[in-house]
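Write out the 3D structure for:
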Amino acid sequence: MKKELVTLTIDEQKVTVEKGTTILQAANQAGIDIPTLCFLKDINEVGDCRMCIVEVEGRRGFATSCIQKVEEGMVVHTNTPNVLEARHVILDLIISNHAKDCLTCTRSGNCELQALATKFNITKVEFEGERVSHKIDDLSPSIVRDFNKCILCRRCVAACKNVQKIGAIDCINRGFESCISTVGDHSLNDVNCTFCGQCIEACPTGALHEKETIDDVWIKLKDEETYVIVQTAPAVRVALGEEFDMPIGTNVTGKMVTALKRLGFNKVFDTNTGADFTIMEEANEFIERFTKNDHLPMITSCSPGWVKYIEMNYPELLPHLSTCKSPHQMFGALLKTYYAEKEGIDPKKIYVVSVMPCIAKKFERQRQQMQNGGLYDVDNVITTRELSRMIKQANIEFTKLEETEFDSPMGEATGAAAIFGTTGGVMEAALRTAQDTLTGKNLDKIDFEQVRGEEGIKKATVTIDGKEIKVVAASGLANAREILEEIKTGKADYQFVEIMACPGGCVMGGGQPIKSAKTRVEVDVRKLRADALYTIDEKSTIRKSHENPVVNKIYEEFLEKPGSHKAEELLHTSYEKREKYNI
């Protein structure tokens, strides 16, 4: 069907767009900038903040461009004196009830409110008055809420309620006392929050941020008695450069390793090696379950936000979860056992730091199930953003760094491990190993493109050794709920399911560089980061986890084989039913 077009004029420029387009969208297509604060493409399009107001000839008052649809012959003005004055007043009112500690705020330099204040030359606040003082919620291991910096844009609410279908936060109270909080105004630590961090990614200010722990890392780096090892997740290397103004999706692996060595870590290892172990264990577990038709479908367990979600919402389906620990937890366990033994280091003196794209990993690392011999597998988790702050604190000029390689012998990984960072990647990596194991052959067909792409739910049927295996990869907790309901009601006959808590997978994790609403409109951030991981995979000499010589050596010398008693003890975990509300 031919699409109906509408022609209008914006700032004396003729623009032709599809019927149903908003004025804001039409202006963006024409390269005309209209400021926004509450707007977040496809997530929060409600017109609450009114920063995007424009004048339309023949109409009284202002039109809210993010929700006002275009009409044939419409004449729009985006920067008249009246519009500019109104926006200035709106900004002034927002800032009057906002904390003024910009210099020490974690979002300084990447705050949409700060950017607009600079753009509109807000040098003083004319409407100073009474301010509401809110408590700071820092009880969770992952997220800090400081609503003294909240502008009530509701973007976080929309991300939690509309994208993830969790609804852990919403607007409470009325009038001047309105704020974004939880049921009963309790801590996020005590409600149905999964710590996915999508609220942080949506927030335009510093009202939400990760629980920062880099001070603890600095203390350990200064302690000569502590052997500090750092490991980095695949998604980090294709996003870290953005914190230093490099193009989105730039692979900065070599520079990242150099920076970590300059920070003083004793060893710099690759979590991808841990991912190869995860694949070995997960593929073995899947083959056993598939052969015995036991608790199918098997569901991946790499995403801690997802694991917390199923523990709270579908505990009856926990037997379907793979018992495999996530890659960085497996790797931490091996570093404090196999590596410590090989190097003659007291495990109690080893301090493992994981650099992750995910703030739920902060919660995961302190789960009671993530210990061995009284020691936690991982001692600290910092995000991609936190690593960038450490690099800046050390006054390292990141873009000028030479490239170096991960340390041996725990720094070798395969292309299969690299794609763990994007939705569908865990499943594809596991299928590569599963098909070779089931057929007893080294098959050339290793790209399972059926589970790639940006769709929230990707279903496919793959044939291995004459057997059909129905698989599905879902990213985002709303999509996870859909798949779980199918399993719960018996409507699905999948054998293998991958679920990632964050839409798009780890490349869009809650600890990744935060992109403004404007950037989200102009650029497909997920695709650029994911494409970079697939490129790493394609260029890798080894693209199957079971062909990693380091992994095979450790199995021979220490673990014996996938699924062995030793492997079960170190690399597998258990789960628990959790209450949604601990109030």
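The radius of gyration is 25 Å.
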